């Protein structure tokens, strides 16, 4: 596909960029918290969805696992309904402009701006044996991700607001020194999704990095695995099935049942009034297993077709590169880099 053909596929819709790191298996939380939203957004926006592998190596990764998990993540994107025809789906490291722009932005960022980032402080505590420069400069690479594609909107949660603010500050700073170059990205605040908690400790959010897999429902889990995990999950004292802050275990199960069945919380409480915890767990397990199973089936089909996944990633990298290259050329010219003259 030529650059002209690629350009013709880019509409005048507002641009959104988002991504997930391939540093572990994706969970039901990713499904209802991000991927479901992405599927809807791709029809109304010019969406760039990346597998953020450059970001993932701020923490030590097993190389073979990282490569495999990158393809896993692509396959799950597709299984959830993300279409390479309706968005730009690519691997971050396949588009070198991300790293190239990040270096320029590094030179416009103060040490204090990075050192005050809450995520850096938190990750430095949890990975005290590997506090590397990449972890420190992570938000600058994230700014490059956003600004390369002139993103209008960026889906953000509470933990990413600081990073988006830095992206805006860097864009304004560069524009001030060198004339308008970057759009100022705005936060896209999605509707508040369900907060899925750990199965064994429902006071903590479910996390793919949790070393105890009994706490997590993965999109790759079989029906039997899901049912068994929910059957063994922690509940609360008492017998009432009710959504309440003082019943975190049962509230988490009600939330999972709501996600799987789309039934309202009120109707769920009525449906299981007077029912014991054991029967409720069984019902939740079956519902969640039935909800995940069609996605898992599609995931396995895509994951077993490596040739197709490579073709999709090649196509996506070409589309992303054609846009990113235009932005980087402007940046390089404005900062004074001497261009390579082609014979």
Structure, explained:
The chain contains 14 helices and five strands. Helix 5 (97-106) runs parallel beside helix 14. Mean pLDDT is 90; it is low at 1-10. It folds into two domains: 3-193 and 306-335, HUPs (Rossmann fold); 213-300, Tyrosyl-Transfer RNA Synthetase (Orthogonal Bundle), CATH 1.10.240. The strands form two sheets. It has a three-stranded parallel β-sheet. It starts with a helix and ends in an 8-residue tail after the last helix. Helix content is 55%, strand content 6%. With 343 residues, the chain is mostly helical.
* Strand percentage: 5-15%
Helical percentage? 40-55%
Radius of gyration: 22 Å
Main structural class: mainly alpha
CATH superfamily of the largest domain: HUPs
| Total domain units | 2
CATH architecture of the largest domain: 3-Layer(aba) Sandwich
CA-CA gap between termini = 24 Å
Report the major sheet. Answer: 3 strands, parallel
Broad shape: elongated
Task: Compute the average pLDDT.
Answer: 90
The spatial strand order of the largest sheet comes to: 1-2-3
State the total count of DSSP E strands: 5
Helix and strand string, N-terminal first?
Answer: HEHEHHEHHHHEHEHHHHH
Topology (SSEs and partners):
Elements: H1 3-9, E1 15-20, H2 28-41, E2 46-51, H3 53-56, H4 63-79, E3 88-91, H5 97-106, H6 111-115, H7 118-126, H8 133-148, E4 153-155, H9 161-178, E5 186-188, H10 223-231, H11 248-261, H12 265-271, H13 277-303, H14 306-335
Parallel strand pairs: 1-2, 2-3, 4-5
Helix pairs in contact: 4-13, 5-8, 5-14, 8-9, 10-13, 11-13
